[in-house]
Amino acid sequence: MTENAPSSPRTPQCLVRPGARTWRCAPAPAEVRDFHAVLPGHSPTPLTELPRLAAELGVGRVFVKDESSRLGLPAFKALGASWAVHRVLAERAASGEERGPVTLVTATDGNHGRAVARTARLLGQRAHVFVPQGVHPRAVAAIAAERATVTEVAGAYDEAVRLAAEAAAAARPDAVLVQDTAWAGYERIPGLIVEGYSTLCAEIDEQLTEGGHAAGPDLVAVPVGVGSLAQAVVTHYRSRPSGRAPALLSVEPEAAACVLESLGLGEPVSVSTGETTMAGLNCGTPSSIAWPFLRDGLDAAVAVTDLDSAVAADDLAALGVSSGPCGAASLAGLRVVLAGAGGEERRTALGLDASSVVVLLSTEGTAANPRAAGVHRTGGE
Q: Is 296 helix (H, G, I), strand (E, B) or coil?
């Protein structure tokens, strides 16, 4: 499959950081998995082994966690939205606040908003979703099809988040902001969303064990927007008191590499975002609650181009895995890290060799974030 990768390796936007595998944190609550297990339509998503990718990358085994169908939606986001909304509604009822349907307000690059809207519809609540520029019209239509009110914003993701927060505040107590990024004074619900994602990691452990590898992965690659999923991954793999800790790699678009930039500077910063087909990752500011986990628990971070992710998506499709641009970013990122000048040094720093087990998180299917098929490849392919 190496012939499908960009033919001219470039100097990657990449950062490898020593010491992250020794950092430890508290685990996610165990009851999250039990909650998801009883939801209608729930089943673990596939962990698909792809030997051709293992041969290409020079490792022992490669698995792709395929989130193209999660709780009836084409992305992993329903895990976080369902758990957070469940907890919010239960807390409102317990406090006496429940007086009728509530409006769940959020901003989204696509998948989170649809998950909140679906959860609201199934529970008899309302949803109001703010969508920034750059989200595919079909993704916007899918949110509206969940009976949500959709407000399209003439600005970037961070602006949509600001407007959603203002709308929720103005409509209190009959509205609740269900946002998957945190900032000072708004941490509780983003934290619940992160907890919800822990089910995905628990499934990986069980599936690897069933596949004959109970020791767990040697590297996990995760696409990153504001960093909430990466926070969940760091929490899962850095909360083990003993045993082998895998290397953790974050992957972002070059047009919105806020985590890579923040790690390089040693403090969270906002970046100006550009256009990218990886719409769900087009975020300019790391979540405030995610940042300490990313800072201390990530072994490496890399930024990839739209072409990198498109080539990876096509290659995954050829191997039977439906992956949108965001989902395919994990494969694209690992390819970039291991290619070109310094690739062997980065491989060694990440502890990868011919026996290593790699897990790539494919966070969305092609239905989540439509794109033009048949990308143009360097070299005339």
A: helix
- pLDDT value, residue 379: 33
The SS3 assignment for 312 reads: helix
CA atoms within 13 A on the CB side of 61: 13
> What 3-state DSSP class applies to 118?
helix
Catalytic residues: 77, 109
Please say whether the beta carbons of 322 and 68 come within 8 A.
Answer: yes
214 half-sphere exposure, CB direction, 13 A CA radius: 0
Neighbours of 279 (CB within 10 A): 31
- Taking phi first (over 0 means left), then psi (-120 to 50 degrees means alpha), and beta for anything else, what does residue 211 get? alpha
The runs of H, that is alpha helices, within 123-187 are: 137-144, 157-170
Quickly state the pLDDT bin for 98 (edges 50, 70, 90): low
- Tokens 């985590």 locate to 259
CA distance 310 to 109: 18
Say if residues 215 and 237 touch (Cβ distance below 8 Å). no
DSSP state of 279: G
Q: Give me Rg for the CA atoms of the chain.
A: 19
Amino acid of residue 53: L
3-state class percentages of the chain: helix first, strand second, coil last, to nearest 5: 40, 15, 40
pLDDT classification of 96: cutoffs 50, 70, 90: confident
Give yes or no for a contact between 298 and 247, defined as CB atoms under 8 angstroms apart. no
Distance CA 180, CA 195 (A): 11
Q: Average pLDDT over the chain, rounded to whole?
A: 92
Give the pairing of strands 47-49 and 61-66.
Answer: antiparallel
Cis peptide before 223 (omega within 30 of 0): no
Angle of CA points 20, 25, 26, to nearest 5°: 160
pLDDT tens for 230-285 read: 999 999 999 987 777 999 999 999 999 999 999 999 999 999 999 999 999 999 99
Tell me: the pLDDT tens digits for 316-329?
Answer: 999 999 999 999 99
- The pTM for the full model equals 0.92
User: What is the rounded CA–CA span in Å between residue 313 and residue 321?
Assistant: 8
The closest of 104, 49, 66 to 368, measured between CA atoms, is 66
